[in-house]
Amino acid sequence: MTHEEHHAAKTLGIGKAIAVLTSGGDAQGMNAAVRAVVRVGIFTGARVFFVHEGYQGLVDGGDHIREATWESVSMMLQLGGTVIGSARCKDFRDREGRLRAAYNLVKRGITNLCVIGGDGSLTGADTFRSEWSDLLSDLQKAGKITAEEVTKSSYLNIVGLVGSIDNDFCGTDMTIGTDSALHRIIEIVDAITTTAQSHQRTFVLEVMGRHCGYLALVTSLSCGADWVFIPECPPDDDWEEHLCRRLSETRTRGSRLNIIIVAEGAIDKNGKPITSEDIKNLVVKRLGYDTRVTVLGHVQRGGTPSAFDRILGSRMGVEAVMALLEGTPDTPACVVSLSGNQAVRLPLMECVQVTKDVTKAMEEKKFDEAMKLRGRSFMNNWEVYKLLAHVRPPVSKTVSHTVAVMNVGAPAAGMNAAVRSTVRIGLIQGNRVLVVHDGFEGLAKGQIEEAGWSYVGGWTGQGGSKLGTKRTLPKKSFDQISANITKFNIQGLVIIGGFEAYTGGLELMEGRRQFDELCIPFVVIPATVSNNVPGSDFSIGADTALNTICTTCDRIKQSAAGTKRRVFIIETMGGYCGYLATMAGLAAGADAAYIFEEPFTIRDLQANVEHLVQKMKTTVKRGLVLRNEKCNENYTTDFIFNLYSEEGKGIFDSRKNVLGHMQQGGSPTPFDRNFATKMGAKAMNWMSGKIKESYRNGRIFANSPDTGCVLGMRKRALVFQPVTELKDQTDFEHRIPKEQWWLKLRPILKILAKYEIDLDTSEHAHLEHITRKQSGEAAV
């Protein structure tokens, strides 16, 4: 990375102008994207304009197109919807309207357009771009613009960001707003579950998604619904019988409620709509259950954006500015999106085409084709849903294997969801599944019991660890552990937990030399709010903790905005790992985030104080500073608070807040429920295979490194990695992986907080083609 290139990012936009607009249906997180486009645009030296009311504002011009300032996007991050407004626009569909839009842009010297919206909005942008030179020559002929203006605005660059709560755009793992919509849905499902249990009711919930069943599918995974209806995969012809049988089976197993999720676009095999009323009438008529329908409607679009959507919006905004400023007349209009946790650029029209192909396949009743085009992630969700919902637990007396499940380390939201899916997939495969209470300590003391299907009923939405969890490591009790492995005939171990689960795994590997009993396959599923387990980019529970921190920071910012001239210093958890502090800093719009991985000196602290002093001279008179609990043993939260208080005297006053254990609690977010459910299922499938491979002379003997793994998410795939191979990638003293992907997001945090720093452009996404994505292993 040369110094010139560094310098380039700061001057990339000089003499250029960018317009940003939001169009089509609104989605939470659009504001985060607008804020990032404005601030990064200004950072590069470009002028940035808001276009109010979507394409309508582009056509009407005048006051609808206004220059944005740094301060004008302050406090936007935590607002739902879109602050600059969105409208469905008929005028832009006619060439006459596009002519007026072109005139408005040329007159302001704007040749870069960032469009945030759904597939309709993005297709419109592409049409506009392809007609650009014709529109200009028409305007010149009519004498509305000069020849000089034509040369100055000779081509139009377009970048799209997909904002749509349906997640219906092909090529992107997650569209802006999808995660927040899931948050709204799950809040309601959780609330309905409690009343349904009181009255033994059946609830039919209708969620948005005219042509795309993503919301319905993930909701049903996240709440353990009995049935889901989605447009991509209509039920078999005798579905009415099947549904009623399923509902009554659930009841006979002791459940007091049934939940059925319906996407608004649900259809049967002949393309006839299946409505929530149809389902209600069926259940009432055939089973006589007390059945209620709840249609969620626009609630799903509302509310504050989740941490995920804020970070997604911010990252996409940065990438969009870079794509615009690096664009040439020959680069196709592109969409920036996330694949796994990597930013990618995809040709806009390829994505639009595949999105249209899905609709077409569904119209032609080629449903398998539609499912394939939706991509790997959608298919994975569907497979896990089918496994967990559609199978009757086997009643056979011959048990194939015995697998034990346990929690290790500190509690993390989503642990129970992982236990539930591990237990149920195990039972479906015909295994005997044992649960171990209180981690390795319980394994040594024999606190072990058999779990049936309904043992884990309703666990998906419950926070904490119902099995009980401890940080104790296994080494000092190998004798007792070995005895219990023999006594209970344990042939495989699924360990769900944090850094101790991983180090415990390493100890088990070493113990194999002395104790033959420890030669059984085991798999570690990372679950910790700190997200510090080697071998995985994400761990179960971190998303929930991040949202908790975010909500608190929002409230604190509101308090600071009321009192003015106030700076809050907030301490987050994470041990030595700065993931929570950094990501919460991005999601809450912090001025600084102090972490262990990026050493800082007194000079840095001084620069930050000075930065806040300057900030108090603007209209934004408040500050938010995050500090990871172990970022520096001498620069404690109290020290930083005292320093800020002294240096800010007469300019701002400081307050401090230690968030503490609330970060480990709470009901798991949709991401954590879904992630945990899929990890549990994947781990159990691996386990059954490994146990079969390890059969030697009538007993299990697993001694190779690949029989003790961490199941982690790496970039775009879920992978099993031997714990022994991960040793070299671990800093054991500080309990963190040596390399962490999220560190490259830190420059974004600083730029958005108005620091003059070098943006490392080497990490940039290159244009990919969408077809490759289908074949590649998509992430969760």
UniProtKB/TrEMBL annotation:
<dbReference type="GO" id="GO:0005945">
    <property type="term" value="C:6-phosphofructokinase complex"/>
</dbReference>
<feature type="binding site" description="in other chain">
    <location>
        <begin position="661"/>
        <end position="664"/>
    </location>
    <ligand>
        <name>beta-D-fructose 2,6-bisphosphate</name>
    </ligand>
</feature>
<feature type="binding site">
    <location>
        <begin position="118"/>
        <end position="121"/>
    </location>
    <ligand>
        <name>ATP</name>
    </ligand>
</feature>
<dbReference type="GO" id="GO:0016208">
    <property type="term" value="F:AMP binding"/>
</dbReference>
<keyword id="KW-0379">Hydroxylation</keyword>
<dbReference type="GO" id="GO:0006002">
    <property type="term" value="P:fructose 6-phosphate metabolic process"/>
</dbReference>
<comment type="pathway">
    <text>Carbohydrate degradation; glycolysis; D-glyceraldehyde 3-phosphate and glycerone phosphate from D-glucose: step 3/4.</text>
</comment>
<feature type="binding site" description="in other chain">
    <location>
        <begin position="298"/>
        <end position="301"/>
    </location>
    <ligand>
        <name>substrate</name>
    </ligand>
</feature>
<dbReference type="GO" id="GO:0061621">
    <property type="term" value="P:canonical glycolysis"/>
</dbReference>
<comment type="function">
    <text>Catalyzes the phosphorylation of D-fructose 6-phosphate to fructose 1,6-bisphosphate by ATP, the first committing step of glycolysis.</text>
</comment>
<dbReference type="InterPro" id="IPR000023">
    <property type="entry name" value="Phosphofructokinase_dom"/>
</dbReference>
<dbReference type="GO" id="GO:0016020">
    <property type="term" value="C:membrane"/>
</dbReference>
<keyword id="KW-0325">Glycoprotein</keyword>
<dbReference type="GO" id="GO:0046872">
    <property type="term" value="F:metal ion binding"/>
</dbReference>
<keyword id="KW-0963">Cytoplasm</keyword>
<feature type="binding site">
    <location>
        <position position="566"/>
    </location>
    <ligand>
        <name>beta-D-fructose 2,6-bisphosphate</name>
    </ligand>
</feature>
<keyword id="KW-0067">ATP-binding</keyword>
<feature type="region of interest" description="N-terminal catalytic PFK domain 1">
    <location>
        <begin position="1"/>
        <end position="390"/>
    </location>
</feature>
<feature type="binding site">
    <location>
        <position position="655"/>
    </location>
    <ligand>
        <name>beta-D-fructose 2,6-bisphosphate</name>
    </ligand>
</feature>
<dbReference type="InterPro" id="IPR015912">
    <property type="entry name" value="Phosphofructokinase_CS"/>
</dbReference>
<dbReference type="GO" id="GO:0042802">
    <property type="term" value="F:identical protein binding"/>
</dbReference>
<keyword id="KW-0597">Phosphoprotein</keyword>
<dbReference type="GO" id="GO:0003872">
    <property type="term" value="F:6-phosphofructokinase activity"/>
</dbReference>
<keyword id="KW-0547">Nucleotide-binding</keyword>
<keyword id="KW-0479">Metal-binding</keyword>
<feature type="binding site" description="in other chain">
    <location>
        <position position="471"/>
    </location>
    <ligand>
        <name>beta-D-fructose 2,6-bisphosphate</name>
    </ligand>
</feature>
<feature type="region of interest" description="C-terminal regulatory PFK domain 2">
    <location>
        <begin position="402"/>
        <end position="780"/>
    </location>
</feature>
<feature type="domain" description="Phosphofructokinase">
    <location>
        <begin position="18"/>
        <end position="323"/>
    </location>
</feature>
<keyword id="KW-0324">Glycolysis</keyword>
<comment type="subunit">
    <text>Homo- and heterotetramers.</text>
</comment>
<keyword id="KW-0418">Kinase</keyword>
<dbReference type="InterPro" id="IPR022953">
    <property type="entry name" value="ATP_PFK"/>
</dbReference>
<dbReference type="InterPro" id="IPR041914">
    <property type="entry name" value="PFK_vert-type"/>
</dbReference>
<feature type="binding site">
    <location>
        <begin position="88"/>
        <end position="89"/>
    </location>
    <ligand>
        <name>ATP</name>
    </ligand>
</feature>
<dbReference type="Pfam" id="PF00365">
    <property type="entry name" value="PFK"/>
</dbReference>
<feature type="binding site" description="in other chain">
    <location>
        <begin position="164"/>
        <end position="166"/>
    </location>
    <ligand>
        <name>substrate</name>
    </ligand>
</feature>
<feature type="binding site" description="in other chain">
    <location>
        <begin position="208"/>
        <end position="210"/>
    </location>
    <ligand>
        <name>substrate</name>
    </ligand>
</feature>
<feature type="binding site" description="in other chain">
    <location>
        <begin position="573"/>
        <end position="575"/>
    </location>
    <ligand>
        <name>beta-D-fructose 2,6-bisphosphate</name>
    </ligand>
</feature>
<comment type="similarity">
    <text>Belongs to the phosphofructokinase type A (PFKA) family. ATP-dependent PFK group I subfamily. Eukaryotic two domain clade 'E' sub-subfamily.</text>
</comment>
<dbReference type="InterPro" id="IPR035966">
    <property type="entry name" value="PKF_sf"/>
</dbReference>
<feature type="binding site" description="in other chain">
    <location>
        <position position="735"/>
    </location>
    <ligand>
        <name>beta-D-fructose 2,6-bisphosphate</name>
    </ligand>
</feature>
<feature type="binding site" description="in other chain">
    <location>
        <position position="264"/>
    </location>
    <ligand>
        <name>substrate</name>
    </ligand>
</feature>
